[in-house]
Design goal:
By secondary structure, this protein is an alpha+beta fold. It contains two helices and five strands. The chain has a five-stranded mixed beta barrel.
Length: 143
């Protein structure tokens, strides 16, 4: 009896002596004849702990090793390159940088003019609130 053998990409190695291998196949739709790309994930036994995410591996069929494991890693065909930083960390860093750019700096105490040229709260008259315009300002804007 010959063993089935398929080639796929390792997508996870977080389990003990087990890797998740994603195998992509292309099929043609029966009616519309469009080429479809299907993917299936297999749990494969990796007793040598050599396969890492991004690697292309060949897995062969074997006896049931657990509830879902029916395959074992035969060889590592090609080593893959995976970023050392997880995508979530990259996104978090990017979002924090973006928030810093969007929010203006808080006004400084001491009555100084800030870098943008805006006056601080001490330089405005007490009758005016920092966000309100006076009637003179309204008249100037209308004319």
């Amino acid at each position: 009896m010959t063993q089935k053998s398929i080639t796929g990409t390792v997508v996870s190695d977080k389990m003990a002596k087990t890797v998740v291998v994603q195998v992509a196949t292309t099929t043609r739709h029966r009616v519309y004849k469009k080429i479809l790309r299907r993917t299936k994930r297999y749990l494969a036994h990796d007793d040598r702990l050599g396969a890492k995410p991004g690697d292309t591996v060949r897995i062969v069929e074997t006896r049931p090793l657990s509830r879902h494991k029916r395959w074992r890693v035969a060889e590592i065909v090609e080593r893959g390159e995976v970023a050392e930083i997880a995508p979530r960390e990259i996104d978090a860093e990017y979002l924090s940088m973006r928030r810093e750019k969007e929010t203006p700096p808080a006004p400084q105490e001491g009555g100084e003019v800030t870098a943008e040229g805006a006056e601080t709260a001490e330089e405005t008259s007490p009758a005016e609130a920092p966000g309100e315009e006076t009637s003179e300002a309204n008249e100037d804007s209308e004319s």
